[in-house]
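User: Assemble these into one structure.

Assistant: Restating your components, then the assembled model:
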Amino acid sequence: MKLEESEGHDGAKTSNRKRTASESPRDGSPTDRKKSKNGEKDKTDVKGGIHKAKHSSCKQSQKPLQEPKITSSENLNVAHVETKAVDEDASPSPGNKDTGLCKVIESDERKGIKLELQEIDLFGPIEHSDTERSENKSKKSVDSKKDYKHKDKPKGSQRGKHLTDEKHLEKKMCQRSANSSESNSKRKKSKDSSEKDFTPTGDVKKENIKEKTRNDKVKKERSSKDKKPISEKKRKKEPDGQVESNKKMKKDAEMNGKNLKSTRTEEDDCKWKWWEEDNANNGKKWSTLEHKGPFFPPEYEPLPSNVCFVYNGKSIKLSLAAEEVATFYAKMLDHEYTTKSVFQENFFNDWREEMTEEEREQINKLSKCDFSHMAKYFLEKTEEKKAMTKEQKQVLKEENNRLTEEYGFCLLDGHKEKIGNFRVEPPGLFRGRGEHPKMGKLKKRILPEDITINCSKDSKIPEAPKGHRWRKVQHDDTVTWLASWVENVQGNLKYIMLNPSSKLKGEKDWQKYEVARKLKLKVETIRRLYREDWKNREMKIRQRGVALYFIDKLALRAGNEKEEGETADTVGCCSLRVEHITLHEEKGGQEFVVEFDFLGKDSIRYYNEVPVESRVFRNLKLFMENKDPEDDLFDRINTIYLNKHLNQSMPGLTAKVFRTFNASTTLQDQLNKLTTADMTLEEKLLSYNRANRAVAILCNHQRAAPKTFEKSMQNMLDKIAQKQQQLDVAKMELKEAKKEHKKAGTERTRKLVEKKEAAVKRLEEQLKKLQLQMTDREENKVIALGTSKLNYLDPRISVAWCKKFNVPIEKIYNKTQRDKFAWAIDMTEEDFQF
DNA sequence: AGCCCGACTTGGGTCGAGGACA
DNA sequence: TGTCCTCGACCCAAGTCGGGCT
């Protein structure tokens, strides 16, 4: 079949990256990527004979940059898509049903530990699954796996409830649409109305609250016995500062004329239950906002005279500015990156700029610089700090608390809210991630004159530090930040914003999950459509279809274009290059395998071998035809185009929603599969962590194995061995006791048997608990659970699971997480399904 | 329409407080 | 009581995405 070359595109050689200023199209340098991507200006390209930029560093970039952590083959062994390749002529979904079972299996032969996550049975037709590759012991890979499996409608009451929720949501959405009484086209255009559709305020919110109230009685009854001890425990654990701050908050709010439920004494009740309020925000983020401004790091403290910088064997007293920058380097001496030439070069250039003319003349080579005296001095200072007495540490802590109390909170609409980062970033050396071209550059000290303050007009404007003034004071209620400045290394804006526990953040989070839940209702249609796109005559549409398939199936990030030379060379879906995938007609007994190997966000390696449907496979071949390795795989599309398309399928839908949707769906499904009521608490927790882990694997959330990992594993093994020994002894004693009882048959011997039995049972339980803990830790070695828990998993799923299986919420969410998800903890009933 | 930039979310690393344990 | 280890708070880089300007 001949494909239509959309709008005369010359194909193949467009790069997906933004050009740096020096490469602007005007001076005859490569055509702007975006133009090419959209196929609009490609003719110009061809006519003008403009040569496309090549990426010289591509091959190099394939190499994992954080080797100790991402050598997938050593650490992870997961996630394979077991998609049964469907004949491309077979009718597309839903007729095309992959029927392969999906399993997440992780094994570690060395420790003899084997984890098997149960067959995944997602609500939707998509499945994320993982298969063991035990034959391949020497090369375990970090592969995310997911599988499509078109299932019949989920059964049972859950589905019923699900539908009720969905219908309800849909109804609310419809109502909103009707209320806005605008034509569809207008709605599409109007961002406001589409946003409203998903804002969990207004009707949806009210309904949630109604539902909550309905269940309140039951809830109270159920939780009363648990709740008391928890809140008591909480009170006990809460640092005094917190109690104080709550008191102050109450006072502040009262002073602002707001009604706090003043008669309540429980500190929980002091918290602002914004989710119970019905506020129409019409684009406004706040009505009143008052704060103290950011807190600045201390002035530079000059080194004592006995600590010197040595150049070429000669001690030199540096000027204050040059000395300060030198200390940044000295403090980093033991880090690997000070050995990198890019780092050294950037540092040296920036450092020289801080030097006096005289110093510049004198100091010409970094290799002749000796920072070791300075480094030693800082090491000693650290030791000194460590060795401080309890009292000294207490003083420091109190000072810190005082600062937090003073600068760490703001007053938003009369409520005291915690600020996320109230400190201005201190000066230092920039350390990007991966092979960042700007690593080592000087991050300059931020002065009040650099800072824009945002607060309400009638509030008390924060005072700039003595002798200084703010760059600007503004009163923009459409944004959520309190202060901002431009950072000098990349020219990015930096913000002071609220803590995740705040209303502004919480509401947005809630909204995010509502959009993801809405996607659940549409995803089948969207999948059907993108599968149809695979057969489209137009190349652009085909690329869109395949890219969406990857985003959906593999939870890839969208992949915005980046400025070449400005950041590390990392990619996402749309910016994948030919060199990032390898096609295998057959691999490991599977047909049509696509091998992904690229550096994603934060230069974390993504490696995955994925069997795909034959039509996808053939399309990929087509996209790669006549291209060089460094050319874009999807050269006709970009994230803007993709998101515009998605937004047409469902207002509010963007590429990243798929990640949230698939993550939460996976969690829900895994929890349903892995938990049973008769499990012990530890078993339930292991199940939860395994479900969480399946999501982390899907999203490729990796971490470096903790430095103390091997040691702590050994400790646990020792403990287990010890416990086993104790158990063996106890069993022997029980046997003896039974023997004796058989002989004597007295009350005393009977009691002894009972006692010994109890001891054996207790030890068995303890042993099992230890073993479970160890399994959990082992499985978590290189997987970061936190990211998905904080950003991708609808907390209501976890809360409902806790309620359903009587797991204390503290077991899965720590204090910070409970604060962030307070809305979900408060409103969710045990029958909630994502 | 295309591009740039502002606003906000997502992300892993670091480090020290404090709990566990000898 | 001292030491070790874990985990949470914090840090700040690096993404996504939308809006507004040209």
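Residues 301-407 of chain A form a domain with the Arc Repressor Mutant, subunit A fold (CATH 1.10.10.41).
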